[in-house]
Amino acid sequence: MKDVKHRPNLHISTRSWATEILFKEDNKEATGVRFTKNKRYHTVRARREVILSAGAFETPKLLMNSGIGPAADLKRHGIRVRQDLPVGQRVYEHGGLFGPIFIIRNGTPRERNLLSLEQVLTVDEILRFRNGTGPLTSNSIESLLYVKSPYAADPDPGMPDVEVMQSFTSMSFDSSIATRLAYRLPDSLVREYFDPLIGVLTGSNHHHRERALKLVK
């Protein structure tokens, strides 16, 4: 982003939240976007087109907030129906499980600095992050593997249904309550399984069952 942010035809608005796509009254052509910033509503008009790229969950939400979606659901929430479409009907959350945790007993000095979030949040690592390097640039998932299980519903051999993610750490990495709240981990599980691993260099595997996953061939 830093290579293109100075272009005169690019304007970046941070801390902004799109709430509605605007349309022409006489047809279904998108003309702009309404968004909030600093607790105030703003409107941006498009000269050519509106590109909607808000992610798997926020994209259908934004469409439905704009009147495009299942008519019965929109009417129930008092949203004017512009187009009755099955928006969001194929959005599935994927179930998953945490796989085995691996204890790394002979790590390098740099690897040993990844024992906890407190050890990573240092001035040196923050400066590395600003330059686009270091562990803070990772979401902790370092490799992915897609496989087709014997229980896959789709007969297409190129359509896997299980995703295996390999992480450079485990849940013990964050000794605060943030992770356990985000994943709704029971206190007993945290106390008996993860707390003993605080300060221990670990890695782990996560497995997710994918309901709608396509690979680019």
Describe the model.
The protein has 217 residues and is of the alpha+beta class. The chain folds into 2 domains: 16-84, no CATH class; 117-215, no CATH class. The protein contains 7 helices and 9 strands, in the order βββαβαββαααββααβ. The strands form 3 sheets. Strands 6-9-8-7 form a 4-stranded antiparallel beta sheet, with no helix packed on it. A 3-stranded antiparallel beta sheet has the order 1-2-3. It has a two-stranded parallel sheet with strand order 4-5. Strand 2 and strand 3 (40-45) form a beta hairpin. The longest helix has 11 residues, at 55-65. It is extended and about 70 Å long. Residues 211-217 have low confidence and may be disordered.
Percent strand equals 15-25%
**SSE order, as H and E?**
EEEHEHEEHHHEEHHE
- Rg, Å, rounded: 22 Å
- The total tally of domains equals 2
Structural class: alpha+beta
Shape category: extended
